[in-house]
Amino acid sequence: MLDINFEPFTEITTARLLLRKFSLADVPAMFALRSNTQVLEFLGREPLKNLDEATALVTTILKNLEDNNGIMWGICLQENKIQLIGSIGFWQIEKENYRAEIGYMLHPQYWNKGFMQEAIKAVVAFGFTQMKLNSVKASINPRNAASAALLEKTGFIREAYFKEDYYFRGEFFDSAVYGILNNQH
Predict the structure, then answer these.
(1) Which domain, by its residues, includes 92?
(2) Residue 169 is assigned to a structural domain of this protein
């Protein structure tokens, strides 16, 4: 079984990005991200309604980190290490199976610039080398062609397709599950 300890927190630097620990100072940016209808289009989640909900979300991210049950990085550009432009991390960590699910989102202003591809590669590498994961999965709405293409560009392979897998706002949606193994990385 995985023995995970996220303390001390590991910042990840890429060519253009800093992936850093969340703080309560990120609440307004998290609210802007999680209330944006473009960002949420394929996520099956309600938009945040106010800063209190954003505070609760950031607090949950920090609690999961403290309890070693999940790790989420705030994505920032190297030239502005304070301004949050997105998030990426592992949640639903299956310690007994050496597997975790990756989740990510980016403000639309930064789409189609290769930032998320850069972040995914770095976070997956962290998962395999530091966390000792055997596999990483991603579950997406298959209508999100951009996310599917992004996962495939970063080495993920579609492993499963579930018809009407989840229910949101009175409608059933399909899920596509992608995965990458440590030895494929």
Answers:
(1) 12-133
(2) no
Mean pLDDT along residues 101-118? 97
**Residue 21 within any structural domain of the chain:** yes
The answer to whether residues 100 and 124 touch, using CB atoms and an 8 Å cutoff, is: no
Q: At what angle do helices 115-129 and 145-153 cross, to 10 degrees?
A: 50
What is the layout of strands, in order, in the sheet containing 99-106? Answer: 12-13, 17-21, 71-77, 86-94, 99-106, 135-140, 171-181, 157-168
**DSSP secondary structure letter of residue 101:** E
Threshold 0.85, pTM exceeds: yes
Q: Is residue 34 part of a domain?
A: yes
Measure the CA–CA gap between 159 and 7, rounded to whole angstroms: 32
CATH number at residue 56: 3.40.630.30
Instruction: Grade residue 16 by pLDDT with cuts at 50, 70 and 90.
Output: very high
Residue given tokens 């960590």 in the structure block = 93
Pairing of strands 86-94, 99-106: antiparallel
